[in-house]
Each structure stands twice: as C-alpha cells, then as structure tokens.
C-alpha cells in the first residue's frame, strides 16, 4: 500500500522502524524489538501498534531466512512541524529474503573511522527513528568493497557505533560497548548480550582503540563480525587484530541468540 504524500514519516522522519531476522516464520529477538518499538513510540508520543497485529507479520515469511521491516509513522495531518491533535499512526511492513555475510563471520572485516560526527540528542538516543541522515552521509564516505563499515564518533568525542551496527571490544579482560545515553541506536542484539554477559557500557574515545585486545561489530540481522583492521577516514592503516578465542566465544554467544552457527 503506497504512503501518502503528506505522511509525516516521509515529510519529517516522524516515525520509527525495526528490522527483524525471521527464520522459517519465527522472529529472532522479538521481545527486544517490541520493547524498543514501545520505547520509541513513547519518546515520540506515537501510539504503539497493536502487538497482536505485529505478531502476525513474521508468519507470512517463506521458509528459510527473511528480514521483516516494520515502519510506524505518526500518520498524516498537523500543520508543518506541529503534530495533529489526534494522530492516526500508519503501519507499513515488508518481508525480504536474506542471506548473511558468512565470510565476514569467519575471516573478519576491515573498517574505518568516519569524518562525520554524530549530534548528541538525549531525547532521541537509543531509539530507531526514521531520520537517519547522519548514517546516510557517513556511509557515503567510502565505496571500496574492502571496507565493511565505518565507525562513528559523537560531536562530544566519544565512540558511539558503526553506521548500521553496534560496537564491542575487549579491554583488560572485559567486554565493553559504548554508552548510548546521548546518541546512537541501542540494538536488540546489543540489549540481549548486555542482559546475558558481563558487558560494561562506557564512554570511550576512538583513539583508545589502540589499547583494546579485540574489536567486533554486531546487529540482530548480520550477527557478529570480528574486526581485523582499522583505517583512518583517508584510508591510512591504524590498527590490526587477530581473531582470538575470546572473540570467537563472544561471537558464539551472539549467534546463539539469532540461530546462526556456533562453529565458524
């Protein structure tokens, strides 16, 4: 069903989305996706969709792996930026066949720092709202297929995330991930790992990556990619890491949550 021209999600990014890995009609990390969607709706003041309706969507997938994308907007109406007094939220969804990048699980990836800096807006921190122009601009910074992702730093100087994945590293024997109280997307795989493993949420300057024992990226669709090489925004080599047994164990914990193979 087409989206009307006056839809506020189209006009202003006034809405939220979720991307869910679906295996044989069963969604992965579903409770975490619903919880983040509820948080996002509360933050934007949008009525959350009926969870009974949402629960029917993954079952429409064919056998094998799919990705369900759910978009919720405030709907139409209002005057300019002023929201309508009685909005009628709009729900749209799509299922697409999916195949993960298995070679990246096994061999790891190269990443680079991005020049773009993320704005800090605590009112939007953590939620997956539709206005992702910062990520779009950052992703335009490289075209080489040898670079899998770009690391994003906030305007305040803290490492936050990759353009479409969360960041994890091992330092002094502890797994850590960026604190996302000012900006960034709190991924559902990240949430599940925080709940199950002893991961510290910290403020971390990107230059401190030279002190870490291992680095990886993860999200609830692609799983977990080890990082083997880090470059500057201009492509100069900065750091290299081997894929340690500790990182493989961490990867296995992440993949168990998604139904991906434990042995790589």
Automatic annotation (TrEMBL):
It comes from the Bacteria. The keyword Phosphoprotein does not apply. It catalyses: 4-amino-4-deoxychorismate = 4-aminobenzoate + pyruvate + H(+). Signal peptide: none annotated. Keywords: Folate biosynthesis, Lyase, Pyridoxal phosphate. Pathway: Cofactor biosynthesis; tetrahydrofolate biosynthesis; 4-aminobenzoate from chorismate: step 2/2. Its EC number is 4.1.3.38. Its cofactor is pyridoxal 5'-phosphate. It is an enzyme of class 4 (lyase). GO terms for molecular function: lyase activity. Belongs to the class-IV pyridoxal-phosphate-dependent aminotransferase family. Homodimer. This is Aminodeoxychorismate lyase. It comes from Modicisalibacter zincidurans. The gene is pabC.
């Amino acid at each position: 069903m087409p989206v009307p021209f006056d839809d506020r999600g189209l006009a202003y990014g006034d809405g939220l989305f979720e991307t869910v890995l679906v295996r044989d009609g069963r969604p992965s990390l579903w409770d975490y996706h619903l919880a983040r969607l509820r948080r996002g709706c509360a933050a934007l003041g949008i009525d959350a969709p009926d969870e009974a309706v949402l629960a029917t969507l993954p079952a429409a997938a064919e056998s094998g792996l799919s990705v369900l994308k759910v978009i919720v907007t405030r709907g139409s109406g209002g005057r300019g930026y002023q929201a309508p007094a009685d909005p009628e939220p709009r729900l749209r969804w799509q299922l697409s066949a999916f195949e993960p990048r298995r070679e990246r699980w096994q061999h790891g990836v190269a990443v680079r720092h991005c020049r773009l800096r993320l704005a800090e807006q605590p009112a939007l921190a953590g939620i997956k709202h539709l206005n992702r122009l910062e990520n779009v601009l950052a992703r335009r910074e490289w075209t080489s297929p040898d670079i899998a992702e770009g690391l994003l730093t906030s305007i305040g100087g803290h490492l936050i995330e990759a353009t479409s994945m969360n960041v994890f590293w091992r330092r002094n024997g502890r797994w850590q991930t960026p604190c996302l109280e000012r900006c960034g997307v709190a991924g559902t795989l990240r949430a599940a790992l925080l709940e199950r493993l002893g991961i510290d949420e910290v403020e971390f300057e990107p230059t401190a990556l030279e002190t870490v024992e291992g680095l990886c990226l993860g999200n609830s669709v692609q799983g977990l990619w080890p990082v083997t090489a880090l470059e500057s925004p201009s492509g100069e080599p900065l750091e290299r890491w081997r894929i340690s047994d500790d990182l493989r164990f961490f990867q296995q914990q992440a993949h168990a949550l998604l139904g991906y193979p434990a042995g790589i």
